[in-house]
Design brief:
The protein has 9 helices and 3 strands. The chain is mainly alpha-helical. Strands 1-3-2 form a 3-stranded antiparallel β-sheet. The longest helix has 30 residues.
């Protein structure tokens, strides 16, 4: 992994986990200090994140960490739903023996106990393995921003962490196990079930907001 990729991964995690607060303004220098990396890799990462709607660059003012609304989340999930079905189907048909072994191992690892940060990292790994097994270089460019923003929304709004983690683990395990079995219809159904859960979660956030306003 080169330094630009390191910077990209580090900034994605900081945004996803809320260390960089939605609505806040940051500087290039501040991001260099946070990541411990130089100007060129951080600048390259900033440009890539801006293209993926994870940052907004304001010339002469700084870099904004944009908020993500429920409407943004639901719009992203509409696209993610279709793309992830394609990804899991490709993973079933194209995954190498090595890909399948790694997917099986992660499925077993999901039986463990996780706090919110560790679980978020494991979900990131789940998505990375599926993209890897699909063997289509264009999928990563589409899926990673959608998945990262979706995880960020979930992390920001989760309340009962252990209950939501337990449910999410089962949904991700179902996808991984179906891919490991090369069960294309099962993997598609499991992917759609995960998307439906995320839609329901977003709508529950709307309901909570309405109650708090009332």
């Amino acid at each position: 992994m080169n330094q630009s990729e390191q910077a990209l991964g580090a900034l994605e995690r900081l945004i996803e986990q809320g260390a960089l607060k939605p609505g806040s303004m940051v500087s290039e220098r501040g991001l260099m200090e946070l990541t411990g990396l130089g100007r060129t890799p951080v600048r390259e990462a900033i440009q890539r994140l801006a293209l993926n709607h994870m940052l907004r660059i304001h010339p002469n003012k700084g870099i904004e960490i944009p908020a993500i609304s429920v409407e943004d989340q639901l719009s992203g999930l509409e696209v993610r739903r279709a793309v992830e079905v394609l990804a899991v189907e490709l993973a079933c048909s194209r995954g190498s023996a090595k890909d399948i072994r790694e997917i099986e191992a992660l499925s077993v690892a999901l039986d463990g106990q996780f706090d919110l940060r560790d679980y978020s990292q494991t979900v990131r790994q789940t998505h990375a393995l599926i993209i890897q097994a699909a063997h289509n270089p264009y999928l990563e460019a589409v899926m990673v921003p959608l998945q990262t923003l979706s995880r960020r929304f979930w992390v920001m709004h989760v309340r009962d962490e252990q209950q939501e983690i337990a449910h999410g683990k089962l949904l991700h395990q179902a996808i991984l196990r179906a891919i490991a079995a090369r069960d294309m219809s099962g993997a598609s159904a499991a992917s759609l079930a995960l998307n439906s859960y995320l839609v329901e979660f977003a709508l529950s956030v709307v309901a909570r907001m309405a109650v708090s306003r009332g």
